[in-house]
Each structure stands twice: as C-alpha cells, then as structure tokens.
Amino acid sequence: MAVWWLWPILAIPTSSVDGVDSAMDIVDDHDIADLDFRIDSLVHPVSGHLSVMLRAPNGYGSDLIFKRGALMVPNQGGGADFNALVIDDDLPLASSEDLNQSLSTQAPFTGDWLPAFNGPFWDGYRPSPPTPPADIHRDATGQLSRLDGLGTQGRWHVNVANGSATLTGTLVGWSLIVKPREYVCVPYQSADIVFRDGFESGP
Fold this sequence. Notes:
The protein is an all-beta fold.
C-alpha cells in the first residue's frame, strides 16, 4: 500500500461552481490496482452544500462527494466537517455505506463510504419536477475503478465546490491510498535449442 498526502489548508469560497483547487504532484510511477480517496480534514458547517471532485493526471475527473444528504426528504444536508473520510468503491452496495443517505446527526463524517454516484440512493431517487420523474440510476461502474491500471505519476487535483452563499469552509488535507499492481517475475528460459553431452535438448 502506498499513500500520498497533502495539507494545502485552502479556503473554500462561497457560491462558487469553480470552488477551490488543490494540486498534488506525484513523482513515483506505480500502476494502480486499487485506489481509495481520503479527506483527512475538511471544515464546513453544512456539508450538504459541498461537492468534492478528484481529477487524475489523464484528465478523468468525477465528483466523489455530491451534496451529502441534501437530496433526501427531509433534507439531511446539515452536519459539519469531514474527518478521515475514505471514499472506496469496493464497499458493499448498502444504504449504510452510502454517504448520500447519511444523516445530519452523524456529523462529523468519518469512516468508509461509497463514491457519490455508486450509492444505492440513486436507484430510488426521483426528482420533482420534472413530471413524470426522470429515470435516474446509480453508476454501476466504480467511479474510482475507472482509474485502475493508470500510473500514479503526474498531477492530481481535488476540487471543492460550495453551494452556500454565506457559509465558507476550509480544505485542510487529503490523501490518495493506492494498492500498486503486483507483477510476478520468473527466471528467463531460452527457447533456443542447445546441445548437452552430445545430445540435442530444448523445447
């Protein structure tokens, strides 16, 4: 397991779709077998206003946290702060693992959770309007698994957008947790025919 971490301590502006961007350059180049994303510390009084995106060096980016609890009825977007919160798309497909279905009383939010659009919340979510309800389903492919096989080398970005017009926050620190792909090395065996003790040998 390899872990890269960054503590940028950046202010999250209000009413900002662009949000705040934090970049981490990784020199080591490991092929990714599995990737988890951890928010070591993010401070905000109403976490349901936030969207958190991870963007890889190849340009692929995805919101791993999206308006936590704010789309539930009744609204559960209240509740402050993320501390040692890990996003892991290998978790069981259960409401207890779905940050979208977490309650404001569970704050501060910590532990392991599914990525935003892999959670089972979306299979039952029907926005209103439109009428009739839109056909919305969860993403069946793990959001982080799309990066399996990618190399770790390059510039990684985390972007935090804030939908609140009055409440600001701070992105304190975040980490990438990588299980590198393992390769098995075997001794080289030549396919060439050789002669041993006057007899031909080889494949």
